[in-house]
Amino acid sequence: MSLNTTAVRIKVTLKDVKPEVMRCLVVPLTLRLDRLHLTLQAAFGWTNSHLFEFLAGDGRWGIPGPDGDFGPQPIDARKTRLSNIVQETGAKTIHYLYDFGDSWDHVIKLEKWFDNTTTEGLPLLLEAAGRCPPEDVGGAPGYAEYLDAISDPTHPEHEQMRLWGPEQFDPNVVDRKALEAAVNALSEIWKPRRRTIRSK
């Protein structure tokens, strides 16, 4: 099995959030973790405005702080591939933590392997359910409160939350075309460039 021709289908679910927010994607097994982070940002509709970490076994992968002053540093996600996590930990489930304040925990399940396949055109979004919560809403508990407030005109914070959040926010409506376009744009950016040989 060549890692360069192996892809994996992943199901990513936002933990402790109702209604369910889930994305199903196919990604190359050799995808760097910083690029997997960008893929998840695009697929969910986050704005990439906060720090992140991947967790599996006892390992932590993220972007180390420039000074390294805040305790043990994560392994550099820019130098690690998804295949490294799989080989080093044997994990079939990985956690992707986004925004250490709101602590959005995305549970990534590695569902199916595709050997001897082309990884061109990947990452690819297969399924999307549930709209991504607004940034800085206060994590899963804050999001539940936000949904209560905007759905109940008698709620004391109804008007404030309605004006604070996105217009006409419906947690069940997903703009799948926009999410697909964002993920597809990444596959275009990361497409391997073919070398041209110039004749002398």
TrEMBL record:
Specify the Plasmid pRiA4b Orf3-like domain's residue ranges: 7-177
User: What superkingdom heads the lineage?
Assistant: Bacteria
Q: Which InterPro entries match?
A: MM3350-like_sf (IPR024047), Plasmid_pRiA4b_Orf3-like (IPR012912)
Provide the coiled-coil residue spans. Answer: none
The protein depicted here goes by the name Plasmid pRiA4b ORF-3 family protein
* Organism annotation: Bradyrhizobium vignae
Q: What is the lineage of its organism?
A: Bacteria, Pseudomonadati, Pseudomonadota, Alphaproteobacteria, Hyphomicrobiales
